[in-house]
Specification:
The complex is a heterodimer. By secondary structure, chain A is α/β, with parallel strands linked by helices. Helix content of chain A is about 35%, strand content about 25%. Chain A has a single domain, classed as Rossmann fold (3-Layer(aba) Sandwich), CATH 3.40.50. In chain A, strand 9 and strand 10 form a beta hairpin. Chain B is mostly helical. Chain B folds into two domains: about 100 residues, no CATH class; about 230 residues, Orthogonal Bundle (MetI-like fold). Helix content of chain B is about 65%, strand content about 5%. Chain B has a three-stranded antiparallel sheet, sandwiched between helices. Chain B starts with 10 loop residues before the first helix and ends with a helix. Classes of the chains: A alpha/beta, B mainly alpha. Chains A and B meet through helix 2, helix 3 and helix 6 of A and helix 13 and helix 14 of B.
Chain lengths: ~260, ~400
């Protein structure tokens, strides 16, 4: 069944559990995320999609009483190892949030800030241009780089957030429902952008929108609450997006993707 | 068909019940409006009462006739002539004392003129009238004054004058000013803010951004909220025990070689006021920091910022307008506080400008309090004027801070 050529793995979870206090919000996740592909995480509300996504760059660290067991491996290194600094993890694994959250600064500063605090020594103007081009925003804003980011439209703000993320040259970009606050046209632009971005980056996206997952992703992880009533979410099926949508193995996945979930 | 359909009023009975609802609404609206009216009227009455006292007719007399000292009219005398009059007519002891406070030759003409009036001619105020009386019963007052004090001159006077602002304290109401009190108040709130704002902001940052939400921190938080409501006299006692007594070598300045003071200095008062407003500043700063959206912190963390970078570059700049507003409120409270100053030991009679943190001092509320306790009505008039000064000072401080806040609020 396997190809001769083993796919390159960007990030991998091994027996990952995420706890809030004594409550396991996500349990027993084993995923191998392939390099330079888009991996979608889908599932009903409250099943732990965002929690799982945030475990990849240790954003859950800010929730008091949260902790994980198991491993998240980035090129073989456990991100939760005792010698790992979460700041470095977030520099390697960037994140785009659900609601566009640019800094209340100029467009230029939005991109330059992250690079500067991470010790970027190169040509900042070049980096800003390159990042904005990478996020397909350059043509729209090149003459107004000193304008406040808040004056941009929601879709432009979200692309600015993507530009800000790629400016620090991460290995992986996490996207937490990046288009859910946007209109269909802006959504389409973000989706197109993701196809561009995956040439250079590994993308993991959480989405509520199944058509979106089907359109943009190469692999899909289906999450669902455990059947035992523990309110704990887990990945029930993970494979190529095509298979998930046309020939799912799990009955629950089939019900969900065909809209019969209920 | 919905089985509950019949339970709703229809047609005429619905319109009746709607009318009842509107009537209730208008009664409440009327009540709210009356509450608003009462509040406005109370404020108006307060302002009127103050202004009423600060202006009005005054009947006064010269104890010694100006002709005893000079042949020319007083207003035509130049500086040197005034100086000569003072030299010849004051006792040498009194002259020396004045000269020691500030060299006589260096004083301006108007100061010397006031001294001649105050020390030699000596104004004797017979009676004062309020502004309302003065306007409404002007004719009657003139007749009354002419009958009762045939010698006296009647004059409509504003007790609040530029001279009132720039002259120091005097034992005679006609010559007393609020200069030393204004300077004392400004020094005091200045020290209080310098002390309380960095500490308060720092504490707020620690509590909101760093501290765990554990039991001890919750107890501390509750206590900070309670401390903001502790009566100010308690802070006065604290200031007396700690700043005036325990830290006397520091607050009196003897540590720095300043002599002839005790711990009852501007520094003690400023630190006491700082302690008093500290909880207020912490709470306001916390609110301001809380108002910075979490999404902004996440954005900063998301591009690999440390907690410190997130706070310094994003949380603080965005919370600063709120922190400044909180400090404005704190200043407003500190500048009007009287009780702690009495306990800490503000002097009521100070005629020399405070010249540093180790000076003895007085403050506006202390001065006002002291003047209102005097029996003579002219002191009540200058107390009213001093209240106007206090209110104006408060408003201008607030205005400065609001301007500052708007300037800091970056327009992206």
């Amino acid at each position: 069944m396997k190809n001769n050529q083993t796919p390159e793995i960007a990030i991998e979870t091994k027996n990952l559990f995420i706890f809030y206090g004594s409550f396991a919000a996500v349990s027993e996740v084993n995923l191998k995320i392939e390099k330079q592909k888009v991996t979608a995480i889908i599932g009903p509300s409250g099943c732990g999609k965002s929690t799982l996504l945030r475990a990849f760059n240790r954003m859950n660290d800010f929730v008091p009483s949260s902790y994980v067991t198991g491993e998240v491996l980035l090129s073989g290194q456990n991100l939760y190892g005792s010698n790992i600094d979460p700041v470095e993890v977030r520099r390697r694994i960037g994140m785009v949030f659900q609601k566009p959250n640019p800094f209340p600064k100029s467009i230029y500063e939005n991109i330059a800030w992250g690079a500067r605090i991470n010790g970027f020594k190169g040509n900042m103007d070049e980096l800003v241009e390159q990042s904005l081009r990478g996020a397909a925003l350059w043509e729209e804003v090149k003459d107004q780089l000193q304008k406040s980011a808040y004056e941009l439209s929601g879709g432009q703000q979200q692309r600015l957030c993507i530009a800000r993320t790629i400016a620090i040259q991460p290995d992986i970009i996490l996207m937490d429902e990046p288009a859910s606050a946007l209109d269909p046209i802006s959504t389409l632009r973000i989706e197109e952008l993701m196809q561009e971005l995956k040439k250079n980056y590994t993308i993991i996206i959480v989405t509520h929108n199944m058509q979106q997952a089907a359109r943009v992703s190469d692999y899909t992880a289906m999450m669902m609450l455990e059947k035992d009533g523990s309110r704990s979410g887990t990945v029930i099926e993970f494979s190529e997006t095509k298979k998930i949508f046309t020939n799912p193995k799990d009955k629950r996945t089939e019900d969900y993707v065909t809209g019969r979930f209920g | 068909m919905n089985p509950n359909h019949d339970h709703f009023p229809e047609g005429e009975s619905f319109r009746q019940s709607l009318g009842r609802r509107y009537r209730t609404a208008s009664i409440w609206q009327g009540l709210f409006f009356s509450a608003f009216l009462i509040a406005i009227l109370s404020l108006g009455a307060l302002l009127y009462n103050i202004i009423d006292g600060a202006f009005g007719y005054v009947a006064f007399d010269y104890k010694n006739d100006p002709s005893e000292f000079t042949s020319k009219p007083l207003d035509d005398l130049n500086k040197q002539e005034l100086l000569d009059i003072l030299k010849t007519n004051l006792s040498s002891g009194a002259y020396k004392k004045l000269d020691n406070e500030k060299t006589m030759e260096k004083r301006s003409r108007s100061v010397l003129y006031t001294l001649v009036l105050e020390r030699l001619i000596q104004i004797d105020t017979k009676e004062t009238w309020s502004m309302t009386d003065s306007i409404l019963r002007s004719a009657e007052i003139k007749v009354e004054a002419a009958e009762k004090y045939p010698e006296a001159k009647l004059e409509f006077r504003s007790w609040l004058t530029p001279v009132f602002l720039t002259t120091p304290m005097s034992s005679k109401a006609e010559f007393a000013g609020v200069r030393t009190a204004i300077l004392g108040s400004l020094w005091m709130v200045g020290i209080a803010i310098l002390f309380a704002m960095p500490i308060g902001t720092g504490a707020a940052i620690y509590l909101h951004e760093y501290a765990n939400k554990n039991f001890i921190n919750r107890v501390i938080q509750t206590n900070i909220n309670n401390l903001a409501g502790v009566p100010s006299i308690v802070y006065g006692m604290l200031g007396l025990a700690i700043f005036v007594r325990t830290f006397e070598p520091f607050t009196s300045g003897s540590m720095f070689g300043v002599t002839d003071t005790n711990g009852r200095t501007i520094l003690s008062a400023g630190l006491t006021m700082g302690t008093l407003v500290l909880p207020l500043i912490i709470i306001n700063a916390q609110e301001a920091i809380k108002a910075v959206p979490d999404s902004l912190r996440q954005a900063a963390f998301g591009v690999g910022a440390t907690r410190w970078q997130t706070i310094w570059h994003h949380v603080l700049p965005n919370a600063l307008p709120g922190i400044l507003t909180g400090s404005i409120l704190a200043v407003s409270r500190a500048i009007g506080e009287t009780a702690p100053l009495i306990v800490v030991g503000a002097s009521t009679f100070i005629s020399i400008d405070p010249d540093g943190p180790f000076s003895k001092f007085t403050a506006l509320p202390i001065q006002i309090y002291q003047w209102t306790t005097r029996a003579q009505s002219e002191f009540h008039a200058i107390a009213a004027s001093a209240i106007i000064v206090l209110l104006a000072l408060l408003l201008s401080l607030n205005a400065t801070a609001v301007l500052l806040r708007n300037r800091v609020q970056r327009k992206y």
